[in-house]
Write a structure and sequence with these properties.
The protein is 54% helix and 10% strand. An eight-stranded mixed beta sheet has the order 3-2-1-4-5-6-7-10, with helices on both faces. Strands 8-9 form a two-stranded antiparallel sheet. α5 links the parallel β5 and β6. The longest helix is centred in the middle third of the chain and has 30 residues. It is globular. It starts with 5 loop residues before the first strand and ends in a 21-residue tail after the last helix. The chain binds NADPH dihydro-nicotinamide-adenine-dinucleotide phosphate (NDP).
Length: 468
């Protein structure tokens, strides 16, 4: 007893995979699960790794099986289960023993738990990559006390994904910083998925492409600047065959997307921070609208058919690719911008180049573009990504394609909420003289809120609106 390097609670999809990954990297691990039969099955199915795994049936046994000062990972559903588990575990632990919440906690809960820990070691870490990532190398975003992170970073580095010899595990900052960065990751994930789905819509409804043809297009894009896990799996999803109908599996899947709410958290938090992330927000809204199938069917019947075929040669495959590249850069620009806003708001000093590095492998949004982003952010972490020369060039070269795609789709009734939001963001950003002067005039008219004059920069000016 007392010889395991680390413990883990919660042998569900992620916890089981993470425990095997830890054992696979040579660390002895003690595990406990609320339902004991799950622990027994896990041990019996661990095969060659079984020797590295100590199954336990009570929390006391779990604690006793780990070398002090202990480290115990929680991999249970976010929310109350985490609080309950901490409450059950803490009285059994010593003052140096560390609890690590590795689930998808809301970062505000992690902030609160860090305070509630009253100086006892606690880390909140975001883990991305799904089951396969957890088993063979996830991206890991840590938050809490730096010295506490350093205590377990050798284990986290070992189990994390590897990009050119560098582990995709990084310390993000105090308290909930790791879970915050994970939330933004998930927001970007929502947006990336939505933009791919929108382009799929143009290919299917506007260009009449079959699922098989779309699979080939995505596979070819995966060889170029769009190379990414999400493009790769989108191609594989489109290529998959349904045995029951002998047709594409994609064609028999209901068009209502599920969600666990992390994208929504990102959108809500962005509003608190006044950080503009319209592409991510549009993706969250699109998921919500996808669930309204009955209403959409009713509206299609009332207002006429939905998406119409595009004219011959209206858009090329290359134009679609360029538009998606543009949308993707704008989406990341917004995501990193939100991280900068949070860094200021919470005093976290979030390391932008490090974040891009951690996202290069293991996580769902991994892509070749993230390597270029980490290089650009390393040159100047304070610069908005859209002003980094490499990405400014990409935007200059691709925004025409995005405009063409959004305009053509609009004229043919094909909805592109996320790509359209990206274009509006770009156009808003490059309009030096905007239209908020009208809003300031309206606000002063009805509420005497005052405005600033352009000609003398004096504030708290009011109009003689009655003269109108
Ligand atoms: P699962 O539903 O597969 O497993 C949940 C685990 O938690 C089970 O071991 C379950 O035990 C245990 N559990 C559930 N409720 C409680 C409770 N009240 N008290 C103690 N233990 C409990 O979940 P996942 O493995 O998918 O997710 C775990 C965490 O990881 C979540 O926060 C999730 O958001 C996050 N995550 C998930 C990803 C994924 O792709 N699935 C990706 C990244 C993060 P029992 O066997 O007794 O039911």
């Amino acid at each position: 007893m007392s010889d395991c390097e680390i413990g883990l609670i919660g042998l569900g999809t992620m916890g089981a995979a993470l425990a095997l990954n830890i054992a696979d990297n040579g660390f002895d691990i003690a595990v406990w699960n609320r339902t004991t039969s799950v622990t027994e099955t896990f041990k019996s199915e661990a095969g060659a790794l079984s020797d590295k795994i100590t199954p336990t049936t009570t929390l006391e046994e779990l604690v006793a099986a780990i070398k002090p000062p202990r480290a115990i990972i929680l991999m249970v559903p976010a929310g109350q289960p985490v609080d309950d588990q901490i409450a059950a575990l803490r009285p059994l632990l010593g003052d140096d023993d560390l609890i690590i919440d590795a689930g998808n906690a809301n970062f505000r809960d992690t902030n609160r738990r860090a305070i509630d820990a009253k100086g006892l070691p606690f880390l909140g870490i975001g883990v991305s990559g799904g089951e396969e990532g957890a088993r063979f190398g996830p991206a890991i975003m840590g938050g809490g006390d730096r010295a506490t992170w350093d205590r377990v970073s050798h284990i986290l580095d070992a189990i994390a994904a590897d990009f050119n010899g560098e582990p995709c595990a990084g310390f993000m900052g105090a308290e909930g910083a790791g879970h915050f960065v994970k939330a933004v990751h998930n927001g970007i994930e929502y947006a990336d998925m939505q933009m791919i789905a929108e382009v799929y819509g143009i290919l299917r409804d506007g260009m009449g492409k079959s699922a098989g043809e779309i699979a080939e297009i995505f596979a070819s894009w995966n060889e170029g600047p769009l190379q990414s896990y999400l493009i790769e799996i989108s191609g594989k999803v489109a290529a998959s065959h349904d045995v029951a109908t002998d047709g594409p599996l994609l064609d028999v899947i209901v068009d209502a997307a599920g969600q666990k709410g992390t994208g929504r958290w990102t959108a809500i938090e962005a509003q608190h921070l006044a950080a503009p992330i319209p592409v991510i927000e549009a993706a969250v809204v699109a998921r919500n609208m996808s669930a309204r199938r009955d209403e959409r069917a009713k509206a299609e019947a009332l207002f006429g058919t939905g998406p119409q075929p595009l004219g011959d040669g209206a858009l090329s495959i290359e134009t679609l690719e360029q538009a998606l590249i543009c949308g993707k850069v704008l989406c990341y620009t917004q995501g990193f911008g939100m991280i900068v806003a949070a860094s200021k708001e919470f005093g976290w000093d979030l390391p932008l180049p490090e974040i891009a590095k951690v996202w290069r492998a293991g996580c769902i949004i991994r892509s070749s573009m993230l390597d270029d982003m980490s290089a650009s952010l390393a040159e100047n972490p304070d610069r908005d990504l859209m002003f980094a020369p490499f990405f400014a060039d990409i935007l200059s070269n691709t925004h025409g394609s995005l405009r063409n795609v959004v305009a053509t789709a609009a004229m043919n009734g094909i909805p592109l909420p996320a790509l359209g939001a990206g274009l509006a963001y770009f156009d808003t950003m490059r309009t030096a003289r905007g239209t908020a002067n009208m809003i300031q005039g309206q606000r002063d008219f009805f509420g005497l809120h005052g405005f600033v004059r352009l000609d003398d920069n004096s504030s708290d000016q009011h109009g003689p609106w009655a003269n109108a």
